[in-house]
From TrEMBL:
Protein name per Swiss-Prot or TrEMBL: SAM-dependent methyltransferase
UniProt keyword annotation of DNA-binding present: no
Coiled-coil ranges per UniProt: 183-233
Organism placement in taxonomy: Bacteria, Bacillati, Bacillota, Clostridia, Lachnospirales
Biological process, per Gene Ontology: methylation
Pfam family, one: TrmK
Signal peptide: none
Keyword terms of this UniProt record: Coiled coil, Methyltransferase, Transferase
GO MF term set: methyltransferase activity
InterPro entries: SAM-dependent_MTases_sf (IPR029063), TrmK (IPR006901)
KW Amino-acid biosynthesis (keyword) present: no
Amino acid sequence: MELSKRLYAVAALVTEGASVADVGTDHGYIPIYLIQEKIASRVIAMDINKGPLERARIHIEEQGLSDRIETRLSDGTQALVPGETDTLITAGMGGGLVIHILEEGKDVINQMKTCILQPQSEIDKVRRYLTQEHFLIVDEDMVEEDGKYYPILKVEHGESETYEEYEYYYGKKLLEKKHPVLRDFLLRECAIQEKILKQLNKQADSTSIQVRKAELAEEMLRTKEALERITDVHNAE
């Protein structure tokens, strides 16, 4: 099973021997890969929609893995019994939905060891939620694929760390690693923000323009702080 860069990065954070619940499995590619590569011992592939789940079931059957991968129709973790798996994967959904799944599935997730999360949006809100709910982000990765950037978090239960404001947006672990993909992303963000500022400066002043400029100033400061941290560490080595 060949995975996209994004899904491969998600699978790479799964601990060998894990039993996995893949929530929002879509085509079932991650479960198939995890079993074929002998990373996971078993996987429960779950989706809220019957169509994607049926496609996943067919793909799993075609690979001869129906005895190792079970499919379940489920809204989040609702069809999962506490203690059934030790790892949760949620990939390819918005940050708000990731938070909803974690919040609604607390009874199940509290019995798990690890969560692998790949939010498509609102990454800062996801990191804030995790720190508030006493999750520890133990590892992070980031990939670029088809012009889009995807952060992936590996999370365990434990006392969360203190975060600077910009670390919620760009990731404490990614910054500590001076991750090259994050650096590229920050450089792109700087260029976009400068372009937006020039466009705003050309427009007639108004309350809405002033508000947007103030918001942009905060965004630019966060991006600059993150980029300087990566650059300073890079130059010192």
